Amino acid sequence: MYYLFFNSEQWGIFKRAKSISKKQRGKIRIPNFTPKQIKKLSDLYKKIVKTERDELLQIIKKVWKNKKKLAGNTSQKNQFDLPSDITEKERKDIKSKLKAELRKKIDNNIFSIFEIPEDIRAAIKDFIKTKLPLDNSSIKIPERKPSNKELKDYALELREELDDYVMGKSYNKVAINKSKELIECVVQVNKSKKVTSVDIKECNLTIEKLFAEIKDNLKIPINQSVYIQKGLRLYAGPTVYIYKLPTLINWTKTQAKIDAGEIIGDAIPSNEFHKTK
Asked: What average pLDDT does range 59-82 have in this prediction?
């Protein structure tokens, strides 16, 4: 598996196992685990196997209990058997739910065992949530709209990155206005105090209205064929306006770090980050 991971163009994503000759085994890059890490990984494996069995049994017991309430006497020959009238979709849902819970536990333990930094953890989680599903055309997760929690996580990450850069000289207030067509993120420099809350509000913003407002303020013609595909960033003194389409892939914690870096890069020449009105 490590051989495939380091030598395939797709970095091991959705690559099926294949046989490796004895000559090739010497090329496999095996991580240099410490004895302590090996012990923890071994214990984790045993724990996950037991957890999988116990949680699966609990789910099956719950399903049978509900069936008995509805249908009266029903017989279960094996403790791992599901009722015969359970649909294929229900079976898949049970398995996928259990798989997601176990994966979360494995990920959190791996992060802890190898002391993975928070920024790398966020990047990994965002990759699994938004980028990895792109390899499967039947999954539409990256195309769905971000939830309020995901927007709040984006805003908090953006604010933290910007606040860390100025090291207490000023603070940033972040607000998000969302509509069906567009999401607006407003960043305002505030020298007086650190703002801990993030406001998320519904609005009727559209791309057409946005360009009309820009046209009126700039007093320049804008071609009607112009459209937002990736994003738009506007600067008005100490205030930054970020506009992007309402898809999850545009509003992750990793994207917040990228956006913060670009804002800082744009602000350095004019020193706008230390100015307030």
From this structure: 62
